[in-house]
């Protein structure tokens, strides 16, 4: 008899830890680690996941007292190492074990079970995602001597079509009426063979010229150094990390491709993470053109069926390179030699629902557990990664930074001009585009090239700003920017809770607290308005393509817009953050940033870092080919270090000031920051829970150096959908086990009375 440890997935209860069950002999071949099983638990059936099996009964239990596993519901989806990783995630991010295990399951797998009759076997109520088979027809040898009857024109057409190669019967039927019966007739005569093949969904195609990845003749010196460092880390096989710190257009993708080639040559596979939004045909195409069918692609814009097929390619060992969004980390690739995270600074690597993990941290742990290397790439690495490289190691792994300061083939970084918009306003400029940007756009059109215009939408209309002096009202007590609440006509401070009534422009009572101007207005213009103004400014033969949440909603829309931009002779691409990264169009010679500073005033300690990252990334879209590029950054805060750093292509201008400030105030990367959010319908309950939680955390933390508990206070978004939201922030030393401590505090609450609690370790969203 063997025994299995099973983690139960019972939605309404949080049971931590695994329970022991016996494996009946008839199920012995099916009950493996990673399998989904049905067991009985307190007199009803429950779904669970096997996380370990053992030949000996658990200590202290008599074998006849152990309940048997009743049924196997789904085959193994993960192995022992993955099970251990899930346990690590649960502890590190203070979530339940089933929450940590679910990302590893097959796409579409659900927790609910049903059965058709009282004694029928139970089945999972999965989304319809399982494998799909297609019937393929092909000519048999006998076709060479076969002459269809004169009346059999359909048979003739089918044979004709199949001479080009095998085809799906459904496809034949679409072009030849009655093809299916002709195929059956021909099959009976032995002229055609029909076979069932697994259909694989989700292998999208593109016409984008830049989606191919022709192998360059030689790598640059920077690329060679980066590749050597990654190879060395892979050979060391203990989870060492290499940060590829390469300027925009320096050829990081080529480094990844070469490193993966080396990994494959040694019989190991690779996981490649790219931000969801840049998982476009362009990026995927580069990997496919180098590795063909050995690539599986996983992201959320695929249908469940498509994701299932791609996932199954990995599990069945047919694909060894997985390219995907952060969840690709959980793909069933057993023999991982290399993990790559492109644009590692991206905030989207942090998941905002349970499990609230950060892909960089999970990848580091996975690399350690699998004896693989982790390569992080960015033109604007996160302060966390830079700091770990300075220290040389983190959590037992070596962190090495390799610089790639040059673009290959002699192309140079673009010239950057910062335009002070307050000055433009004082000079009478009231439009969306400053004088210098208008001139640059006209010159670009004359040269018949392409331009990219970024409209920053984050932080939009969250605060008031004076158009004349650029001032943003701040709290006199906390020096955080005041948030504007349009409905209540009020400015509020989210650190101390104070608020002031105010009316924004065009109300006649408006007045800037700094200069008295009446142009104190909510901040922002929409992409639609930019598009309209552009059309008025430029000749009609210039194509204007708008890319934002509205125009990219439809499936494949993102790709079609880029293909249009690619195919155009002279065009302007206007878009939100989604256009800032990854795009590689050599004809783009102008990049304009309409409003560089909307994020700077957000009550978020990473606001400046995010602004710098975004500007540097979008600037990097210019001049990637032979022609030099130009960048125009419009801002009301021309002296901010982020602007100056981008203008001079010198990160240290921003970095030194920023690191000093973070060290001073004890923010990451010099500490860990956890945000505990409590929300619910009753404000009283929410307050009671946050107060108890704050007291519990303070009691545990005591006066331990490096720990600090802030709050409780209202969240920036204090009310969402009629629910009150309060939070508590906890700062801890970088090596502290924050998740375990906060998890225990939450578990020890005396009551949670209709409140929801989210423990967000290493939080990115402070709102
Ligand atoms: N060694 C090389 N020789 C010539 N061309 C190269 C070489 N390496 C890369 N390239 C080309 O340089 C261009 C930029 O490369 P890539 O897109 O990989 O840059 P990147 O570093 O990822 O940039 P970004 O961070 O801005 O997205 C691509 O068109 C690529 O084909
Ligand atoms: Zn205040």
UniProtKB/TrEMBL annotation:
Sequence positions that bind Zn(2+) 2: 475, 478, 493, 496
Question: Where does the chain bind Zn(2+) 1?
Answer: 466, 469, 512, 515
Q: How is the cofactor bound?
A: Binds 2 zinc ions per subunit.
Q: What is its EC number?
A: 5.6.2.4
Outline the extent of the Helicase C-terminal domain. Answer: 507-665
Supply the name of the protein.
Replication restart protein PriA
Which superkingdom? Answer: Bacteria
Q: What class of enzyme is it?
A: isomerase
Record keywords, A-Z: ATP-binding, DNA replication, DNA-binding, Helicase, Hydrolase, Isomerase, Metal-binding, Nucleotide-binding, Primosome, Zinc
């Amino acid at each position: 008899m063997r025994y299995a440890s099973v983690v139960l997935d019972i939605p309404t209860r949080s049971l931590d830890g695994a329970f022991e069950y016996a494996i009946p002999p008839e199920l012995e071949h099916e009950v493996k680690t990673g399998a989904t099983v049905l067991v009985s638990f307190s007199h009803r059936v429950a779904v669970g996941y096997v996380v370990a099996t053992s030949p000996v009964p658990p200590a202290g239990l008599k074998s006849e007292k152990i309940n048997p596993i009743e049924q196997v519901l789904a085959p193994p989806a993960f192995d022992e190492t993955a099970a251990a990783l899930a346990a690590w995630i649960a502890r590190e991010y203070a979530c339940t074990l089933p929450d940590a295990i679910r990302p590893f399951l097959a796409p579409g797998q659900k927790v609910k079970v049903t059965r058709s009759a009282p004694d029928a076997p139970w089945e999972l109520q999965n989304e319809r995602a399982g494998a799909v088979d297609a019937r393929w027809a092909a000519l048999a040898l006998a076709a060479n001597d076969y002459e269809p009857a004169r009346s059999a024109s359909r048979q003739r057409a089918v044979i004709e079509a199949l001479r080009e190669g095998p085809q799906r019967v459904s496809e034949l039927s679409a072009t030849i009426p009655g093809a299916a019966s002709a195929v059956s007739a021909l099959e009976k005569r032995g002229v055609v063979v029909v076979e069932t093949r697994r259909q694989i969904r989700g292998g999208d195609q593109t016409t984008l010229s830049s989606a191919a990845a022709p192998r360059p003749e030689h790598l640059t010196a920077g690329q060679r150094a980066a590749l050597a460092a990654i190879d060395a880390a892979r050979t060391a096989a203990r989870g060492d990390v290499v940060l590829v710190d390469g300027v925009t257009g320096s050829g990081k993708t080529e480094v990844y491709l070469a490193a993966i080639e080396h990994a494959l040559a040694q019989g190991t596979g690779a996981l490649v993470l790219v931000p969801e939004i840049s998982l476009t045909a362009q990026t995927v195409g580069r990997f496919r053109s180098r590795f063909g069918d050995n690539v599986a692609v996983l992201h959320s814009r695929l249908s469940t069926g498509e994701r299932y097929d791609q996932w199954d390619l990995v599990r069945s060992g047919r694909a060894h390179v997985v390219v995907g969004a952060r969840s690709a980390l959980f793909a069933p690739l057993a023999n991982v030699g290399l993990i790559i995270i492109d644009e590692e600074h991206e905030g989207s690597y942090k998941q905002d629902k349970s499990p609230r993990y950060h892909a960089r941290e999970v990848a580091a742990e996975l690399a350690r557990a699998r004896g693989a290397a982790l390569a992080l790439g960015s033109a604007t690495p996160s302060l966390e990664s830079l700091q770990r490289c300075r220290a040389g190691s983190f959590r037992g792994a070596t962190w090495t930074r390799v610089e790639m300061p040059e673009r290959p083939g002699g192309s140079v970084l673009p010239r950057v001009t910062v335009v002070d918009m307050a000055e433009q306003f004082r000079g009478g400029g009231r439009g969306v585009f400053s004088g210098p940007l208008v001139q640059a756009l006209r010159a670009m059109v004359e040269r018949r090239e392409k331009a990219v215009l970024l409209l920053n939408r984050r932080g939009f209309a969250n605060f008031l700003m004076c158009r004349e002096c650029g001032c943003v009202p701040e709290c006199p007590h906390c020096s955080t920017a005041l948030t504007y609440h349009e409905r209540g006509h009020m400015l509020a401070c989210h650190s101390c809770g104070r608020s002031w009534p105010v009316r924004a422009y065009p109300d006649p009572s408006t007045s800037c607290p700094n200069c008295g101007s009446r142009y104190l207005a909510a901040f922002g213009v929409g992409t639609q308005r930019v598009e309209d103004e552009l059309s008025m400014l430029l000749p009609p033969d210039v194509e204007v393509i708008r890319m934002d949440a509205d125009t990219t909603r439809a499936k494949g829309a993102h790709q079609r817009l880029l293909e249009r931009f690619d195919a155009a002779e002279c065009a302007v691409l206007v878009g939100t953050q989604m256009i800032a990264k990854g795009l590689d169009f050599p004809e783009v010679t102008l990049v304009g940033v309409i409003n560089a500073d909307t994020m700077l005033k957000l009550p978020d300690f990473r606001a400046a870092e995010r602004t710098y990252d975004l500007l540097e990334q979008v600037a990097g879209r210019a001049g990637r080919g032979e022609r030099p590029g130009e960048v125009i950054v419009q801002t009301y805060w021309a002296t901010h270090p982020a602007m100056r750093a981008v203008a001079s292509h010198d990160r240290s201008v921003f970095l030194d000031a920023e690191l000093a400030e973070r060290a001073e105030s004890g923010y990451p990367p010099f500490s860990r920051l956890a945000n505990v959010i409590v929300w619910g319908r009753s404000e009283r309950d929410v307050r009671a829970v946050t107060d108890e939680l704050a007291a519990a955390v303070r009691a545990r933390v005591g006066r331990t150096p490096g720990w600090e508990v802030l709050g409780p206070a209202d969240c920036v978004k204090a009310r969402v959908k009629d629910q009150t939201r309060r939070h508590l922030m906890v700062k801890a030393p970088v090596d502290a086990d924050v998740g375990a401590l906060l998890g225990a505090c939450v578990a020890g609450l005396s009551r949670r009375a209709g409140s929801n609690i989210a423990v967000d370790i290493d939080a990115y969203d402070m709102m």
